[in-house]
Specification:
Layout lengths: L1 H28 L3 H13 L5 H10 L6 H10 L8 E2 L4 E2 L10 H36 L4 H15 L2 H19 L18 H39 L2 H8 L4 H39 L4 H11 L2 H29 L7
Antiparallel strand pairs: 1-2
Helix pairs in contact: 1-12, 5-6, 5-8, 5-10, 5-12, 6-8, 7-8, 7-10, 8-10, 9-10, 10-11, 10-12, 11-12
């Protein structure tokens, strides 16, 4: 198992490297932070920006170099730099807002805010998808099956931003009706709260409830349909029929024989819930006022901050690849025919 994990991690490195090359090219050709900065200076002063200032901005953002050289400096930091660039040295590069802004520090702080939301939403969506998929399959064509199918299609059809606003307003009305602040609808934690890691986590729970429900409901529906289809296929297989013919209790057949096999296709789909949650967090964090990685990426895109956008792309890629690795490891747990040696 350990050898397999190491081998997969080694395979991830060129995959992630290729993804960063593609992302860097796309971000670079679609964005010009120098012109963005010049436009901001002209708007604030009303005067023409002198060429010397433009040259200084280009040098500060490394836009006086070619694209391949900029990528090399961003990745390694080896060469003629200002000491603020080099992924392998722990530096994501300079921000368009100047040296006072440290991208590495900002990303590190906001990553844990978003990761908290993504993990809760992903685990909740996977758990509920498995539960509803199994129930729908066992009670096929019943009122329960039709009801769960309707809820799933409704969740698929609802735009995330609209559903988030709706849930936020519902939480506000519930708070008013109860005369309490059970659901916090703005921010990711109490402003100015100081405490240990566990205390910060406990403080964030009321802020997590509504955003987690939104991300969970918008992400579980597709997976639930996969689970239902897989469960129906397994329930009609020969070995399940044989177990029933031998007199094994139906609950035992479902738990020990059918469910384990039916979870294999879902293990493939599960890592995508991380992707959906990472993408959905951009909208959710804007609506609920979270200062996480999703909101940070949107601010960076709007500001034309190339290296900040690359930081988000890199972290998102790592999260997705880790999810895929976990999915592959689950195959060995769920399918006895697979052995990692």
């Amino acid at each position: 198992m350990a050898v397999y994990i190491i081998r997969r991690i080694l395979i991830m490195i060129p995959v992630l490297l290729g993804a960063t090359v593609l992302a860097f090219v796309l971000v670079d050709v679609s964005n010009d932070p120098v012109q963005q900065k010049v436009f901001e200076l002209q708007s604030s002063t009303g005067d023409e920006v002198p060429q010397s200032t433009i040259d200084a901005i280009e040098s500060e953002l490394y836009y006086d170099r070619s694209m391949p050289e900029r990528y090399w400096l961003w990745l390694t930091g080896i060469g003629d730099t200002h000491g603020d660039i080099g992924l392998l040295q722990g530096e994501f590069g300079p921000s368009i807002d100047g040296p006072a802004v440290d991208i590495s520090s900002d990303v590190g702080e906001r990553f844990w805010v978003t990761l908290r939301l993504v993990i809760f939403a992903s685990l909740a969506s996977i758990g509920i998808a498995i539960l509803t998929g199994v129930v729908s399959a066992v009670k096929q064509y019943s009122k329960v099956d039709y009801s769960l199918t309707f809820i799933g299609f409704l969740a698929l059809a609802m735009p995330t931003f609209w559903f988030a606003v709706l849930m936020k307003e519902a939480a506000v009305q519930v708070n008013k009706g109860m005369g309490s602040n059970l659901f916090r609808t703005y921010g990711s934690g109490t402003t100015g709260f100081q405490g240990t890691g566990w205390e910060v986590f406990v403080d964030s729970l009321p802020f997590l409830i509504v955003p987690t429900i939104v991300l969970m409901l918008t992400g579980y529906a597709s997976m639930a349909r996969y689970q239902r289809a897989a469960m129906l296929e397994v329930m009609n297989s020969d070995y399940v029929r044989l177990a029933r013919a031998k007199g094994v209790r139906n609950r035992t057949v479902m738990r020990r024989h059918a469910l384990r096999t039916a979870l294999i296709p879902v293990a493939t789909f599960a890592p995508l819930s991380l992707t959906f949650a990472m993408g959905g967090s951009i909208v959710i964090e804007q609506i609920f006022g979270w200062r996480g990685l999703g909101a940070y990426s949107l601010e960076a895109i709007l500001a034309g901050d190339t290296f900040a956008v690359m930081a988000y792309v890199l972290i998102s890629g790592v999260v997705v690849l880790v999810g895929i690795l976990i999915s592959d490891l689950l195959y060995g747990v769920l399918d006895p025919r697979i052995r990692y040696e």
